[in-house]
Amino acid sequence: DAGVTQSPTHLIKTRGQHVTLRCSPISGHKSVSWYQQVLGQGPQFIFQYYEKEERGRGNFPDRFSARQFPNYSSELNVNALLLGDSALYLCASSYATPSEQFFGPGTRLTVL
Amino acid sequence: ELKVEQNPLFLSMQEGKNYTIYCNYSTTSDRLYWYRQDPGKSLESLFVLLSNGAVKQEGRLMASLDTKARLSTLHITAAVHDLSATYFCAVDTPGGTSYGKLTFGQGTILTVHP
Predict the structure, then answer these.
(1) What are phi and psi of A83, to 5 degrees?
(2) Which residue of A has its CA nearest to B44?
(3) Domain, as residue range, for A73
(4) Ranges in chain A, pLDDT < 50
(5) Per-residue confidence at B95, pLDDT binned at 50, 70, 90?
(6) Which of residues 15-54 of A touch B (CB under 8 A)?
């Protein structure tokens, strides 16, 4: 069975640009969560979606937004990129909430 | 605000030795997860601990949860080089629709030497 997939794998942007990251959950999973992992730190929660509705938001500025589509895939959007947005962005899916979250391979974002 | 602290943050072990990683958290929760991360890779789920007194074992790793003490431990038995990685504990925010927001510890970088 396919696990969580994310695209793209790597991305390089410049300050002020916008980026869209994509995530496809494990088949049958209805919840998607997004995390940001800065080098040397643990992941930090950004958003959770369940059945296309936002269920939780972490302590991130409004430049960060997300949505979940009818097929349960999800997009994370970041506007007006800053150098500090450089990180590994992880998507996790779960069947419901609460249940175990399975992480995708991540998207490595570099902001120059 | 839920805080999760791991110690030690760095652990250098000899092969064959035993050691324990500790994970303390600040507010009541009955759901705790342990993950492994290899350099440049994503998170691999190791253990899911869902109740007080839960103990899980897989190979040379054993995890336990004491919800009253707000403490989880990850015990390594007879370490081998393949266990070298970063280990994270993550605590689920308790209650209703708040579940699913994981708060991670800082991670423990484990290096196993011959």
Answers:
(1) -55, -35
(2) A103
(3) 5-107
(4) none
(5) low
(6) 31, 33, 35, 41-45, 48, 50
